Task: inverse folding
């Protein structure tokens, strides 16, 4: 699989085969497995730090309003990240066996949990 991907990096099927193989269970490419573990841990730290930072910063009402304004601006763009190419972002589609509704609900729940910790919501920004 790795050789197929190296030979043709644009081969989507080869990439899917390579990435979805359970190297850990196979006992192969231990460096690759450890690298993915490190990325996962690092990503968690980044999200935790960002959540903590915004919680602190958004104790200032002006900064809370600013964060809400950015969310209002960016959520429609972010919502399109997982939409398969050629699909209507507002239509029904599937990705990896999940419906667009399931994916959107999962993302919304995750965002809502973090915003609750931060102390802001998705509604209209509070008045000055």
Result:
């Amino acid at each position: 699989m790795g050789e197929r991907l190296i030979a043709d990096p644009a081969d989507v099927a080869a990439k899917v085969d390579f990435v979805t193989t359970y190297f850990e269970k196979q006992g192969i490419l231990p460096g690759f497995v450890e690298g993915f573990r490190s990325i996962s841990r690092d990503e968690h730290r980044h999200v935790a730090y960002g959540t903590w930072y915004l919680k602190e910063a958004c104790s200032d009402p002006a900064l809370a309003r600013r964060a809400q304004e950015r969310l209002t601006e960016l959520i429609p763009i972010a919502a399109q990240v997982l939409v398969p190419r050629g699909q209507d972002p507002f239509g029904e589609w599937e990705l990896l066996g999940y419906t667009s509704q399931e994916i959107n609900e999962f993302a919304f729940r995750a965002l809502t949990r973090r915003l609750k910790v931060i102390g802001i919501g998705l509604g209209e920004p509070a008045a000055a």
